[in-house]
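Possible regression after last week's pipeline update?

I re-ran a chain I had predicted before the update to compare outputs. Posting the input and the new output here so someone can diff against the archived version. Not blocking, just want to make sure nothing changed silently.
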Amino acid sequence: MTPKNININDFDYILPDEKIAKYPLKERDNSKLLHFDGQNISEQHFFNLSQLLDKEDFLICNNTKVIQARLRFKKITGTTIEIFCLEPHFPAEYQTAFQATENCVWKVMIGNAKRWKSGVLENEIIVGNQKIIFQAKYVEACGNMTHLVEFQWNSSTITFAEILQELGELPIPPYLNRKTEQSDLTNYQTVYSKIDGSVAAPTAGLHFTPKVFQSLADKGVKISEITLHVGAGTFQPVKSEDIGSHTMHAEIFSVQKAVLEQIIEHLDTIVAVGTTSVRTLESLYYIGCHIAENSQNPDLSVSQWEAYSPHELSTKEALENIVKYLSNNNLTSINASTQIIIAPSFKFRIVRKMLTNFHQPKSTLLLLVEAFVGKTNRKKIYDYALQNDFRFLSYGDSSLLERGKSRKY
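New output (post-update):
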């Protein structure tokens, strides 16, 4: 069954503005934690997470780091053009693009795009001790509201990463209805963020502190990391009534071979930190199926609807296919992309428990939550959170959701 006929209006609810957290708590792990054990709801605090997990659990976090992706230029006319960097086009690999000097091309969104279709925008900045002329040249439209822009600067030693650090602005979510503040540079990053590339934080991870990680380690909970670079599409509303007409955004992910081997060993105890980790982990199964179909030149991308077609491989077989592919090609990680949409009727193959914040009405993330816990439970969880003063969205409180008893793979 494909969920293409699901009506997004069934995922609407009233979210008063005062329920949306505009700022995080001073102490990250003091946030409230709603625990749904598959049947019952209880109210906890995040610093008690280790008491809610089993010592056999394997926690997987997304270690992506939010970049200062918003650039502002002023035309001679006085018009401000905002360029929101989404992903590198040339060089196409993230780390190579960040280390580029003199020029690079990015896929972007443009604010005030109608006012700029030709000509060069320019900013003069100081990076280190060097005065840099940083320019943006419009290349072409390349998709739904996206464009290609070439950046150029007169230095063979200053990297694009350094320019973003100096000139860029951290892109906090639009529903916060405020400008980025200095505190967001720290607050809107997880304490374990490492790999530059996201334009939005994997917000379920914002609640973790070194003390929480220590308490988990003391209990015996195993912890590892994957990387998925969160795109601006995470905030894209579902504008069509039926989700079959909604196009999911693609996101780049990377999983180390050693982590894949750990996942295979702990298939019935995987705890995903955030929907980005869920999307990454569940996408691995389909990458393994692609490798089974063509081990020499497999398709390392997951399309939006393929999860709703029959697949014969077991989860273990699919993951072992990836490990074997990496070994045969002397690779240490699988680097792929996913456009997967997780909606009711989706078959979860890897994730057993999920940490996640409370999401916007009529969002694809709410579809994912219902797919995980069921329609009745999703409504019960959100009604409880609304009635018991939980804080919503990126800087809000979180939930630990379980899918019930273990199952065979």
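Follow-up from reviewer: compared with the archived run. The chain has a mean pLDDT of 94. Marking as no regression found.
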